[in-house]
Amino acid sequence: MTAFLRVAALVVRKDLTVEVRSLEVVATTLFFAVTVVLIFAFGFVREGLAVEGVAAAILWITVAFSGTLALGRTFERERQADTLRALLLAPADRPAIYAGKLAGMLLLMALVEAVLVPLIGLLFQAPILAAPLRLAALLAAGTLGFAAIGTLFAAMLVRARSRDVLLPVLLYPMTVPVMIAGVRGTAALFQAEPDLDLAQFWTALLVFFDAVFVTLALWTFEPLMTD
Amino acid sequence: MSDFTQVAVVGLGRHYGRRRALHDLTFTAQAGDILGLLGPNGAGKSTLLAILGTLLAPSAGRVEYGGRASADAGSDLRGRIGMLGHDLFLYPELTARENLVFFGRLYGLTDAAAVASAALERAGLAARADDPVSSFSRGMRQRVALERALLHGPRLLLLDEPFTGLDQASSAALVVRLREVQARGVVTVLATHDLDVVDGVLSDVVFLQGGRRVVTGAAGALRDRYRAAMQDGPRS
Amino acid sequence: MTTAVKVQLGLAAAMFAAAPWVINAAPYEATMGLVYKIYFFHMPSAWMFLLGAIVAGVASGRFLFGKRQASDATAVAAAELAVVFGLLALVTGPLWARKAWGVWWVWDARLTSSLLVFLIFVAYLLLRRFGGPGADKLSAGLALFGMANVPFIYVSVNYWRTLHPKTSVVPTLPVSMGIPLWFCVFAFLLLFLALLSLRATLERQRARVDALYLSLDEA
Known about the structure:
By secondary structure, chain B is of the alpha/beta class. Chain B contains eight helices and ten strands.
């Protein structure tokens, strides 16, 4: 177990160092996320006011879009010097490598969300501070579910043809429960009178989803990555 | 316990759908051998190296590391293999030292920092150790990559086209390094095109054409034997 | 084609030929009129769709962990059938909806979940077609995840919006309606099994042709 965590931490630290040095994924993903929000604003703002209830949907769709972009770039980087193979060659536990990549992805998406949520609160008058902890829990659970599946799929697509197209094609239908739970839960929190019970139900569903798919991903990573 | 002094390839085959990459390949390499895999592009050299590195499963036959078959290869076997891929396996954004320390730790070395410093010294890159790899020339990267593959003292060293893009001085330095590795009793398997450089270095040669081994009776310089082998083609 | 498949196919053909009469014998439903009889094909299609998804997921798991090539053939066959029967269910569903609820498409829980699971299996076929070498393994991972996702999709969509007649409708149907329904389910099941084994055999034979092709240039 300690060896597992040690390897995962090593991979996370390596990814962070690379990212801090180039800022490529963070900068492009953040910019992309802001652009997506603006495009939605042009679609949903009429006469200076946002259509009611769109804030939650825009938040989660932007998370999904920018997450896909970040996943693609992160693994493209591991593909260029074939370093993903170098990671798999190491005597380390392979699921630990998956866990490390997943943790790096979560940190990146958390950073994007930290910008995204205030931006949406600002542009669409969403009451993001009505129940901040519950909103954070919902975002954390939803992001984990999305990234758990996304990291596995992006890793396995590294050696596939047309991987850029296939990632969203495979990822979006699979993460629809995350989208529904995220949007509905957030909408419940954004109501004039926040429906805490409803938000809690969706958070619980997401936690359950996370448990199932993180386990399944850790379990299938090894057979999926060896040919 | 997982150590071995011999790598045996027995009836190895690999195909992708209908495309055959390797066919019925058999050879053995001993500790202290430098085995050359020679053949044109698409002869199956990289596929063979990937199978030897346990990254790819064979469709037929097996690889034996000492007494153990590749089928029950675990992480301790991977820890005995060092591989230098064609794409070098280095993070360009990280410095040479960071690359080596990262992989050293990944291989479970407790004194990764010291090992990395020693490796950089050997590669003659101590002065550039803290520059990002992306600023290195091909020859310097190649030296770092080789040290990366040797960091954990592997028993089996797999090199994919290590001489590509190297000038004469770098090639000569690489040959010297290979001789040191050889003296330590490492099994080295090396795929290459640069016949003149490796002539006299290789202790054994496997000629590959279209995924098959070509056996030639020709003698003389490696280049002449290679030409003879490619003309004869695989035995039917 | 084995005898078992021939028998299954023959029986299924006979049952489908007889189905119009059996369905016609079912009582006329007052509010829906004639249109409700779509249900006799809609529900079995939806069940076969779900069955295909489950078989594909289980077979993919066996392929991934047991490295059994034969399971991969079963998985492809089941995934393709899931897409075919899924399409049938998705076409007949709106026909029913038009009459029952007055609109072609409703964001009803089961129809929407079916659409989503259907999309996962279309993605499976896309991955197999365009993924290049090694796509068989990757698509097996996808099918396994898809199967695990079915309950989550169903629960989330169900709480998101619901309109569908409840599952409990089936057992409480009058016998005169239940018999034709089970008759159709059985006919669809026979067809499903026959097509599954035919398609899986085809896939295995394709693998054998590949192997023969490979052994040809050994000589």
